[in-house]
Design goal:
The chain is of the alpha/beta class. It has helices at residues 20-30, 60-68, 88-96, 107-120, 134-144, 149-164, 178-192, and strands spanning 9-13, 35-36, 40-41, 56-57, 72-78, 82-87, 101-104, 124-130, 171-174. The protein has a single domain, classed as 3-Layer(aba) Sandwich (Rossmann fold). The chain has a 5-stranded parallel beta sheet, sandwiched between helices. Strands 4-3-6-5 form a 4-stranded mixed beta sheet. A hairpin with a 3-residue loop joins β5 and β6 (82-87). The longest helix has 16 residues, at 149-164. This is Guanylate kinase. Its EC number is 2.7.4.8. GO terms for molecular function: ATP binding; GMP kinase activity.
C-alpha cells in the first residue's frame, strides 16, 4: 500500500465543538468523491439509520470475532455500552482505487490507527482541526446548546487534553472561518491524491 500512486489515509481529529463535522461536510458537499469511512458498532440502530451507510451494525459476538481476526484499524469500547471500530477492508479497497478516504475519530483512535496502519503497510496523514482559541472553542460548545452545563464542563476538560496532543499531528488546520478551513482541508486531500 505504500505505492506512491495511492494517497494516504487521512485521519481527522479535533476537540468537540471545533467544527470538524461542519468543515468535513463542506468539503464533501463540493467534492462528493471523498469517502468517509463507515464504522462498525454493536449498538442498536437508531430510527432512520441504515446498515452500511451510517454504521455496520453487528452483534457483540460478531464484532469481537472480527476484532480478534484483526479486521479493524482501531476499536473502542464506549462506556461499556457498545463497541465501535473501523473496518480495514473498505478503507484499503477505496485507497487502492485512489479514492480519498477520511476517518473522523478521536485522538486515542488516531493513535491506534497510526500504529495499526503501520503494521498493515498503510500510509496515514493525521490532520488536527484546531479552534482559533480556547475561549472561542468554549463559546462554540456552549452555543450549540446540545449539552448540560456539566457535560459542557467535561467536554472542555477533555478538549484541554486533546489540544495538548496537537503536536502529534502531521497537519493543523485552524477553523476560524469554515470555508477557509474547508479549502485548506481540500487542498491537502487534492495534493495527496493528485486530484
Amino acid at each position: 500500500m505504500t505505492d506512491s500512486r495511492h494517497g494516504r489515509l487521512i485521519v481527522l481529529c479535533g476537540p468537540a465543538g471545533v467544527g470538524k463535522g461542519t468543515v468535513l461536510g463542506r468539503v464533501r458537499e463540493q467534492h462528493p468523491q471523498i469517502w468517509l469511512s463507515v464504522s462498525a458498532t454493536t449498538r442498536k440502530p437508531r430510527p432512520g439509520e441504515v446498515d452500511g451507510v451510517n454504521y455496520f451494525f453487528m452483534t457483540e459476538q460478531e464484532f469481537l470475532a472480527k476484532e480478534d481476526a484483526g479486521e479493524f484499524l482501531e476499536t473502542a469500547d464506549v462506556f461499556g455500552l457498545a463497541h465501535y471500530g473501523t473496518p480495514v477492508k473498505p478503507v484499503v479497497e477505496h485507497l487502492e482505487q485512489n479514492i480519498p478516504v477520511i476517518l473522523e475519530i478521536d485522538i486515542q483512535g488516531a493513535r491506534s490507527v497510526k500504529q495499526r496502519a503501520g503494521e498493515l503497510g498503510l500510509d496515514v496523514m493525521t490532520v488536527f482541526i484546531a479552534p482559533p482559541s480556547f475561549e472561542e472553542l468554549e463559546r462554540r460548545l456552549v452555543g450549540r446548546g446540545t449539552e448540560t452545563p456539566e457535560q459542557q464542563a467535561k467536554r472542555l476538560e477533555t478538549a484541554k487534553i486533546e489540544l495538548a496532543a496537537e503536536p502529534e499531528f502531521d497537519k493543523v488546520i485552524v477553523n476560524n472561518v469554515v470555508d477557509d478551513a474547508a479549502n485548506e482541508l481540500w487542498n491537502l486531500i487534492a495534493t495527496e491524491f493528485n486530484l
